[in-house]
Amino acid sequence: MNAYKKFGYYYDEVMSQLNYDLWVEFVEPYLKKDDSILDLACGTATFITMLKLKGYDVCGLDLSQTILEIASEKMKINHLDFPLYNMDMKDFKLNKKFDVITCFFDSINFLASLDDVKKMFNTVLNHLKPNGYFIFDIFSKELMTEYEHNQIREDYITFKLDWQTKKASPTSLRHKIAIIEGDETFCESYYEYYYKISDLPLEHFKLIKISGDFNDDYQENDERILVVLQKL
Questions:
Q1: Which of 7, 30, 57, 8 is nearest to 133 (CA)?
Q2: Rounded distance, CA 47 to CA 28, Å?
Q3: Which residue from 35, 58, 88, 167 lies 20 to 30 Å from 191 (Cα-Cα)?
Q4: Which H/E stretch holds residue 52?
Q5: What are the angstrom distances between the C-alpha of 188 and each of 6, 145, 176?
Q6: 192-229 per-position pLDDT tens digit
Q7: What is the H or E stretch that residue 144 is in?
Q8: Are 205 and 231 in contact (CB under 8 A)?
């Protein structure tokens, strides 16, 4: 299962180069003041913390208990309080419907089969209010090609990172992450799977927007595809 374990404790520092403002700016045109927002695969909740600080009603869901523990600490630091659910995004059950559901940072690509993707879309559909938005991203074929053989080695203040990505099959990538801290080294592996836009089960949604790398449209050399759907 693609759930971060010990790596979760290093997640924020490794991902600190991400510009979360871009994600907030992309979503906000589809938000109203009192909207309820559910973020799937919320990680350490940086994205929804930013939305909460702007006054939105948010909650998060993630498969990794480790990640959610860190998210809870982040809430306390920011003197915030919002629900966090330790559930699988493909078949979660909450007694609530939302105005907007988000799923970012190619989290959909962590689902191992198109059947799982279809389950997730159906679950999202069941948790959206009428005319609600589902906003997500997936990685492009361009990024899949770029990451066929990729390695990142970085030194942080308290640890070293060795992140290797290789093509595992024509449509999947294997990430092997090694964290070296003093004399200790631990490794975790994760898989991501490539899906085309045409693979996605969009029949119960209206396609509002497709963006590449936060641009107004999508070009073949864009790495990240952002999609806005509206429930029919």
A1: 30
A2: 12
A3: 58
A4: helix 46-53
A5: 8, 22, 6
A6: 999 999 999 999 999 999 999 999 899 989 999 999 99
A7: helix 141-146
A8: yes
Lowest-confidence region among 9-18, 41-50, 65-74, 137-146 = 9-18
> Side chain identity at 171, as an amino acid letter?
T
Contact yes or no for 103/61 (Cβ under 8 A): no
Q: Are 93 and 84 in contact (CB under 8 A)?
A: no
Give SS3 for 163: strand
Task: Burial-class residue 177 by CB neighbours within 10 Å (0-12, 13-18, 19+).
Answer: buried
Cα 40–chain centre separation: 7
Q: What is the mean pLDDT of residues 163-188?
A: 94
- Counting residues of the chain whose pLDDT is more than 90, the rounded percentage is 83
DSSP, collapsed to helix, strand or coil, labels residue 180 as strand
φ/ψ of 60, rounded to 5, equals: -130, 155
What is the per-residue pLDDT for 18? 87
Q: Provide mean pLDDT across the span 123-140.
A: 98
- C-alpha–C-alpha distance, residues 44 and 15, integer Å: 10
The long-range contacts involving 13-22, CB below 8 angstroms and separated by at least 24 positions, are 13/156, 14/154, 14/156, 14/161, 15/43, 18/105, 20/46, 20/47, 20/50, 21/50, 22/214
| 84-119: burial string, b at 16+ Cβ within 10 Å, e else | bbebbbbebeeeeebbbbbbbbbbbbbbeeeebbeb
